[in-house]
Specification:
343 residues, alpha/beta, Nucleotidyltransferase, domain 5, 2 domains, 11 helices, 10 strands, 41% helix, binds 5'-O-[(R)-(carboxyoxy)(hydroxy)phosphoryl]adenosine, binds zinc ion
């Protein structure tokens, strides 16, 4: 089964061709970073306009790179939420038009479901992303614990099978990626914050400043807004720390909470398989620390290559494969939804 995935949920226009839900034959992502950087965050109207400009060439490039034509497609899978409504509309309208005109089956995929199924993708051979040291040799099986940690979401799910998702915890305020982006802005490092903080932290001392960790002992929820405020307050006062030390100390506080809560979820649910996805899943220190803890605790850990952690359409095609197998096709009057929980 060959599926074309399309994701325009936020600021990246992406199209991908995936075979049998696991083999990535192409994965094209057109980033809008340069457009939004000067605003310090995503401007929704600019994002949707850019999707309109890029969608056809991105899809065309995905088909060409996979050496196929529209006639070879078994289905088109498009992300219909959650996300920015104007951005989602572009991908959904395009996918519907394509499927209607060519008589191709259409499926609609929740963006978070896409992140969950990104762990089934065989690592895309593109080099230095660090996915290999943590990717499982064994194929991933249900049930597993899924940590989704991105710019818009920070949640833990129990995944018992396709369509069987239970939320175990979620952020009460900022997502972890949002905290990275806000702290980056405070440090004058621009948008997006994750990659630059990741890089600076490599040569910083993670124990230079002890920022607070919101463990919220009553459950598996998260909170990162206090951490961001603590960094802001620290920067207001005179202090001897360099930017690398602050980046490393902030990052350590985020990682400690993410790792500890994931461990709690493993223990509570008695499930020794964990997947991690979402943009923050690309973080080099988080990947290393999770790999260490997983080894220590005998947990099977699966984190996709960094390029499949950040938003991409391969993950939408991977989840779409299960929709098609379950005969869950989308009607032509399907509409995108900005708020769309997974459970
Ligand atoms: O999954 P994603 O591409 O989009 C959403 O669905 O939100 O995640 C984007 C987020 C941004 O907040 C970005 O700063 C963060 O992921 N990010 C990282 C890294 N790369 C991207 N955070 C930490 N370390 C990274 N290497
Ligand atoms: Zn995402």
């Amino acid at each position: 089964m060959v599926i074309l995935g399309i994701d325009t949920s936020c600021d990246d226009t992406s199209a991908s061709v995936v075979e049998e839900g696991v083999t990535v034959r192409s994965n094209i992502v057109s980033s809008q970073e340069i457009i939004h950087r000067r605003f310090g965050g995503i401007v929704p109207e600019l994002a949707s306009r850019r999707h309109v400009e890029m969608i056809w060439s991105v899809v065309d490039e995905a088909l060409r790179s996979a050496h196929i034509t529209l006639e070879d497609l078994s289905a088109v899978a498009v992300c219909h939420g959650p996300g920015l409504i104007g951005s989602l509309l572009v991908g959904c309208s395009f996918a519907k038009a394509l499927c209607f005109s060519k008589g191709i089956p259409l499926v609609s995929v929740n963006h978070l479901e896409g992140h969950v199924f990104s762990s089934f993708l065989k690592n895309f051979p593109e080099g230095t992303c660090g996915g290999d040291e943590v990717s499982p040799i064994r194929a991933l099986e249900f049930p597993f614990i899924s940590l989704i940690v991105s710019g818009g979401h920070t949640s833990l799910y129990r995944i018992d099978g396709f369509g069987k998702y239970r939320e175990l915890g979620r952020t009460k305020d900022d997502a972890a990626g949002e905290a990275y982006d806000k702290v980056s802005k405070l440090l004058g490092l621009g948008y997006p914050g994750g990659p630059v903080i990741d890089r600076l932290a490599c040569s910083g001392n993670p124990n230079a400043v002890v920022f607070p960790r919101a463990y919220l002992p009553e459950g598996l929820d998260f909170s990162f807004s206090g951490l961001k405020t603590a960094v802001m307050n620290h920067l207001k006062e005179p202090h001897p720390h360099g930017i690398n030390d602050i980046a490393a100390s902030f990052q350590q506080a985020v990682i400690d909470v993410l790792v500890r809560k994931t461990e709690w979820a493993v223990t509570r649910e008695g499930i020794h398989r964990v997947t991690v996805s979402g943009g923050v899943g690309a973080n080099s220190a988080l990947r290393k620390e999770l790999a260490l803890v997983a080894k220590e605790k005998g947990v099977q850990l699966s984190i996709p290559a960094a390029s499949l952690c950040t938003d991409n359409a391969a993950m939408i095609a991977a989840a779409g494969y299960h929709h098609v197998k379950a005969h869950k096709l989308a009607p032509m009057d399907m509409n995108p939804v900005a708020y769309l929980p997974l459970s």
